[in-house]
Amino acid sequence: MLLIPCPWCGPRPEGEFVNLGEAVPPRPADPAALADDVWVETLIMRANVRGPHVERWWHQRSCGRIFAIERDTLTHAIRPLDPEARP
Amino acid sequence: MQRYSIYSLVRNALTHHEGWQRAWRSPPLKRRYQVVIVGAGGHGLSTAYHLAKEHGLTDVAVLEKGWLGGGNTARNTHTIRSNYIRDVSIRFHDVSVKLYEQMSRELNFNILFSQRSMIDLIQSFGKLRDLRRRSLAMALHGPQYQLISVDELQRRIPAMGSLDQVRLPPLAGMVHPEAAMARHDAVAWSYARAADARGVEIHQHTEVTGFVRGPDGAVTGVETNRGTVSADIVALATAGSTSDVARRAGLSLPLVTRNLQAFVSEPVKPLIDVIVNCPDVGLYLMQSDKGEIVIGGGTDPYPSYRQGSHFATFEDTVASLVELFPRFKALKMLRQWGGAIEFAYDASPIISKTDLPGLLVSTGWYGGFKSIPVGGLTFAHLIATGTPHPLAEAFGLDRFTGLKFLLEAGTVAQR
Ligand SMILES: Cc1cc2nc3c(=O)[nH]c(=O)nc-3n(C[C@H](O)[C@H](O)[C@H](O)COP(=O)(O)OP(=O)(O)OC[C@H]3O[C@@H](n4cnc5c(N)ncnc54)[C@H](O)[C@@H]3O)c2cc1C
Predict the structure, then answer these.
(1) Where is the Rhodanese domain (chain B) (predicted)?
(2) Which end of chain B has fewer beta carbons closer than 10 Å to its terminal beta carbon, N or C?
């Protein structure tokens, strides 16, 4: 079982959380201005890295906070990231 | 190729089984092939076989970083079925089931194919509606999917306990009679042997670490731990590693890799003669010919390349198991393992050319043991002719740019 470091509640069991996947850059402000293929790529492409992976978690069954951490997809080693940064 | 039969068995028994030929050769690695297939799992090997058989292409090498059939093909729970929801997926998998039915005879290798029905246990009204819709979609194409009552469910799965205390009491069952299982290793070995007999070369312990690129960016070969190999076409069949391998050619793909685990018990007397699937609680099980109960559940709920047994998911699966089958509390588990399976954005396979001339991919096989025969048939067609096979036209990468998603979900392990 993974212990996920919630910036508000501290380390909690993974079952309380929902993984929201890779932390992709913010959505472009004006999608209509993008070329179709750039927009589609923004929606669906994932780096799917084998190794350190910056990802979002949602503490759904507790405080409700959404935050980012770095988790190694091969070893599950977890590194908390700056909680003040935009997740 | 040395043919296998009752006579060859008897003949070789008389000579103390010392006269068997190797099932495939280990020739020296050449510097150039017409086609290089990366990954000797079921898909890579089936593709190689169909290239040789349907298209007469035998200047083909299959490069495998580990040992042949040692990836997800070795790790899967060998369920074969065609109960999908999209027209193209139903037709595609129906052909695969039919190819499986012929495989032992066609390849002269007993794959222990056993058609024994899969029964879905329906424990919510949402799932009931979903599966009835699925059965109507399937009725248009041939494969069967029939609703049965709870009484019939209990009659056909006597190992199940009393349903009084079950949190989500079953409402009905759905039977897919064509569903089957087959020995996974034998599927890889039979294609390897048949491809080798037609001249294809299989090179184990040969890892592709990079790509050779022509002046126009086209892929013209691969770098390996055993040197450079050039090829007119490089075809990736690398399963969960495909994002990683394609990245070395600068190619991004809409894939996410996850860990899917399974475990088996000690062998017990015959208890279950169908494949039982419980999509509402994330559990499926069957009994192997050796008597082991083979049990699987959902994927770990985040991207992972761990290829291990993750306890939170294991516990979840076991909790579902012992609620429906309380007597299995006494079962001892023998082995548990995981595999890195890859999902495309819409959960349908990708059999496609890429933006890079010379590089083709077959991926998105998160439940792709069942698709090995038809996956190889259609990928070989694309490689040899440059145009998609009619059964796989919808599986190109161009569907993403056109937003023509082929959403598939609700398979065995999916909740
Ligand atoms: C626990 C579990 C249960 C499953 N149950 C089922 C089921 O019941 N039914 C079903 O239909 N499917 C099931 N699946 C899915 C099924 O196993 C896969 O979809 C299928 O085996 C994929 O075959 P493949 O040939 O694409 O992959 P693999 O067999 O994984 O072959 C890919 C090969 O590529 C090689 N490779 C990777 N990178 C490189 C490189 N750089 N150079 C050279 N070689 C490389 C790997 O070593 C590997 O051998 C299950 C999977 C798991 C993990």
Answers:
(1) 35-79
(2) N
Q: How far apart are CA B407 and CA B414, in angstroms?
A: 13
Fold of B25-79+85-94+97-107+184-254+346-400: FAD/NAD(P)-binding domain (3.50.50)
CATH level 2 (architecture), domain B116-178+257-344? 2-Layer Sandwich (3.30)
Please give the number of the atom of ligand 1 that sits closest to the Cα of B375: 26
In CATH terms, the superfamily for domain A1-21+40-87 is: Folate-binding superfamily (3.30.2270.10)
Q: Do A50 and B304 touch (CB under 8 A)?
A: no
- Residue identified by tokens 């599927």 is B187
Q: Please report how many Cα atoms fall inside a 13 Å half-sphere around the Cα of residue B94, on the Cβ side.
A: 18
pLDDT tens string B356-415: 999 999 999 999 999 999 999 999 999 999 999 999 999 999 999 888 899 987 554 443
Q: Name residue B362's beta-bridge partners.
A: B351
Helix B184-197 and helix B372-385, axial crossing angle in degrees, nearest 10: 30
User: How is chain A split into domains, by residue range?
Assistant: 1-21+40-87
Contact B362, B375 (CB under 8 A): yes
Query: Could you give the maximum distance between any two Cα atoms of chain A, in Å?
Result: 44
How far B386 CA sits from the closest chain A CA (Å)?
Answer: 23
Cβ of A66: how many Cβ atoms within 10 Å? 13
Largest CA distance in chain B: 70
Residue whose token pair is 């299989």: B202
Interface confidence, given as ipTM, is: 0.95
